[in-house]
Amino acid sequence: MNKIIGNEIAFKTFNFLRVNETEIEIPQIQGKLYREVGEDNPGEISEFENIKYGISNEVLDQNKKYLNYYKSYTSEEGKAEEDFKLFELDDEYSELFDLHHIVAEKDSKLKVVLDYTSCGKGEKFRNSVIKVLAKENSEVEVFVIARDDDKSLVLESIGVYTEAHAKVSVHQYELGAARLYTNYKCELIGEYSEGHVDSIYFGQKDEYLNMNYDMIHRGKKTESDILVNGALKDKSSKNFKSNLQFIEGAKGAVGSEEEYSILLDDTVHSISVPLMLAHEDDVVGNHASSAGKLDNDQIFYLMSRGISFDEAEALIVESKFSGAIDALGDEKLKDEVWEAVREIIKRGN
């Protein structure tokens, strides 16, 4: 096992809290091929050359060294495009080092769905890097559906760069993996540009989730929101960090960060660190975080109408997840994600 440090917090706090950084154990990499051959990698997107993003430089270097799948997604100026890609890991194809370049040209719209699944008896390893460039007045939607199995180690690095009046929305559905490490960073460069996150997670068994979100306002009148809803059951644990940062010069910027976690068992462990840094006076920032058990009044209300405790529990969790799942649009995909959520909710799993 090789150990690396990643998901470092933007502003260090007390060491005893153990949130400043994360130690990640990386298994022995065999350098396997993936089941498909992707496109030839054209190299770095120029806008990302001087931007720090991702779980760590070591994780990005590892993705580059062992890259076994690359794909680009583009929308031409003034046009709308959609793309979908399914990735499947198993005992034969147990390693995935995938890189995605998502580029929306001026005045265009682009929707990309990346769906990850895995199965089999052996351990799997995935290191995914997703980079989004939204040019002037473009709109981008990215959906990352992660249904990796309980023998998977997953690293996800997402970087976003916005030009003037561009809008990027990222949705993550983290519904599996023995250990998951995800890092999202959005650089709101152009004035009036927007960055949005609406994501869910669900931990079960002894799964571990480590999530880090950075929303950086640089341009004037930029707008952002981070909304993450999650649930934990059994002996699962979660470490969530978010940073809403206003750089000097980002006058009139507005941002918010919210994370809500439902703790379904006494044996789960939840840590949340919402951070807001302001280097500009003329901004509006809000942040909130909460973690707790189900509301007894809600449970009583539902059970008084003939619904069992397990059914009431499921209804409350589903109500928190419905907004993000509805955003998928595609009915088949929504059904598949709901099926995955309901399978986790079931008691006795």
UniProtKB/TrEMBL annotation:
InterPro entries: Fe-S_cluster_assembly_SufBD, SUF_FeS_clus_asmbl_SufBD_core, SUF_FeS_clus_asmbl_SufBD_sf
Listed GO biological process terms: iron-sulfur cluster assembly
Name recorded for this polypeptide: SufD family Fe-S cluster assembly protein
Domain spans labelled SUF system FeS cluster assembly SufBD core: 94-318
